[in-house]
From TrEMBL:
Domain GGDEF, chain residue ranges per copy: 208-330
Alphabetical list of InterPro entries matching this protein: Diguanylate_Cyclase, GGDEF_dom, Nucleotide_cyclase, PAS, PAS-assoc_C, PAS-like_dom_sf, PAS_4, Rev_trsase/Diguanyl_cyclase
Gene: pleD_5
Name of the protein in its database record: Response regulator PleD
SMART domains: GGDEF
Domain PAC residue range list: 115-168
Source organism: Acetobacterium wieringae
Length: 330
């Protein structure tokens, strides 16, 4: 063999070719993955922006924005006066302590693994009030670890009846009920906050005569003491279910405080109210838990026109309730 002739190492050439092929395959795989990620991001962005009925946003565990659609961005500007961006901490742009604490409570529930809905009111700088149904869910990684928060908010401002329909569709209380800000957690009927809003709304000529009925479940303290709060809660829920399903579609049933409940009956007076109370009493007489028989008392008063002072009507109904309690429960 000549001195100038080099020896060709076949194994070295094959190894070099193999490395080049691997590098080429890796680059192609990275390119393909990048294209897929870009497509996925494009699809996600399109979905977020085409869900016109929803305001959508996602947060990380530190409450910083991961993503949001334009509707939520506009709402943040209108409601909180802030121009949000990816990385903005949502709690830092909310001035109201009550709203900030309320949202933090929802966030922490999601980060603890809950998935639920809530009903909230938002007021923008322009003074407009938005009623939104929020759908909350945790964001998880491939290992199932919770890494963030997802919220879809549906604007139901123009559908106030939707609020009542939500409750009618529920045949039993569940964990979602406690997050609805217009509802009482224990009984599932409206709370005092909603009652006061509805009373203000109904305080108009088209709803007169407006009757306000108060109902008290008698002896609850004694029942809770002798049988336990769990039994007392069951008894209260059964009583309220009877009341709730005995009213008309326009009536409002709410928990006023403790073991006292209130019913708003628009365009109703006198004999009509008496008949409704008789109907309630007849159904409530059948309610029993263990050996405990239910005892309830009613009191009502009617506002006939705008000249009647609403607060005086409420106090008159409560005085009648107190007198009736003395007769019904000794």
């Amino acid at each position: 063999m000549s001195k100038n002739m080099s020896v060709v190492n076949i194994e070295t050439i094959n190894e070099d070719n193999r490395k080049k092929l691997e590098e080429q395959s890796f680059e192609e795989a990275v390119l393909a993955l990048t294209e897929k990620l870009e497509l996925a991001n494009s699809l996600l962005k399109t979905m977020l922006e085409t869900t016109h009925e929803f305001l959508v946003f996602g947060l990380d565990r530190d409450y910083r924005y991961l993503s949001f659609n334009n509707r939520h961005k506009e709402m943040a500007k209108d409601q909180w006066g802030a121009d949000i961006a990816i990385g903005t901490r949502i709690l830092d742009i909310i001035n109201s302590n009550e709203e900030r604490d309320n949202l933090r409570g929802f966030f922490d529930r999601v980060l603890a693994g809950e998935q639920f809905s809530s009903l909230e009111e938002y007021e923008g700088d322009s003074g407009n009030v938005i009623v939104g149904k929020n759908h909350w869910a945790p964001i998880k990684n491939s290992n199932g670890e919770i890494i963030g928060i997802l919220c879809f908010m549906q604007d139901v401002t123009e559908h106030r009846s939707f609020i009542k329909e939500m409750l009618k569709e529920k045949n039993s209380l569940d964990q979602n009920m406690e997050s609805l800000s217009f509802y009482d957690q224990l009984t599932g009927v409206y709370n005092r906050k909603f009652y006061e809003k509805e009373l203000q709304r109904m305080d108009e000529e088209q709803y007169y005569p407006l009757s306000i009925i108060f109902m008290n479940i008698n002896g609850m303290s004694k029942i809770n003491s002798e049988y336990g709060h769990a039994v007392g809660d069951i008894l209260m829920r059964k009583a309220v279910q009877v009341l709730k399903y005995g009213v008309r579609g326009d009536d409002v049933v709410a928990r006023y405080e403790g073991d006292e409940f209130v019913v708003l009956m628009p365009r109703t007076e006198g004999a009509k109210v008496e008949r409704a109370l008789e109907r309630f009493k007849k159904s409530l007489d059948e309610v029993k838990v263990q050996s405990i028989k239910l005892s309830v008392s009613f009191g009502f008063y009617t506002k006939y026109d705008e000249s009647d002072n609403t607060e005086s009507v409420i106090k008159a109904a409560q005085r009648q309730l107190e007198r009736q309690k003395e007769l019904d429960y000794i």
